[in-house]
Amino acid sequence: MAGHSKWAQIKRKKAANDAKRGKLITKHMRAIAAAARSGGGPDPAGNVQLRNAIEAAKRDDVPTDNIERLLAKLRGEGEGATQYEEIVYEGYAPGGVALLVFALTDNRNRTAGEVRHVFSKHGGSLGASGAVAWQFERKGMIVLPDTGEAAQEAAIEAGAEDLEEADGVLEVYTDPTEVYAVARALEEAGFKPDEVEITMIPQNTAALPAEEAQKVLRMIEALEDLDDVQNVYSNLDLEGVVA
User: What is the pTM for the complete model shown?
Assistant: First the structure.
């Protein structure tokens, strides 16, 4: 695992999401709907992607009633329901920082135009497919507030692939399909995670002066504010930039 921490980025994302509760719920519901139509069907028992999407929504306190109503609609094939597809945009922010933008959309042209506008406004540049994706690795990540030996042993026994201590927490990395199963095993062992998510880990980070880094963060926030955008990942080194 690259020698850096994702914890600062998770904290920044969570703070932004907490301030935009309704938008966060909408994004989770889109993710659930897209996962149910991904080929695995609307039954979480047989669809890992859907199961993970539901777990992620529950961890962000999306009301269970909302999730159940959506699943019932999807099981009935949701006549007239909006069809979402995932699109990944790749490019660079100022300073050569790599960006991966994951969106779920029912209108490719609208979403592409909105993403392109943010890149242009903030001095970034969109690239072709594959331009920056090679710099990231998809992983499950669990953040534990306990860095002790017992927590580390429990994580390994639960199926962790790698561990890293950073910022006073233990970052547990897993196969993306196993992250919520590992999190449940840790909870059963008495270790409650602060965060659980599927993320894109940059293999190398780009360090910028604080003022330049803030420009990149403002660009990321503008992308995250777009209704169709689900997640934005960067290889910006946040050490000393985000508290």
Answer: 0.80
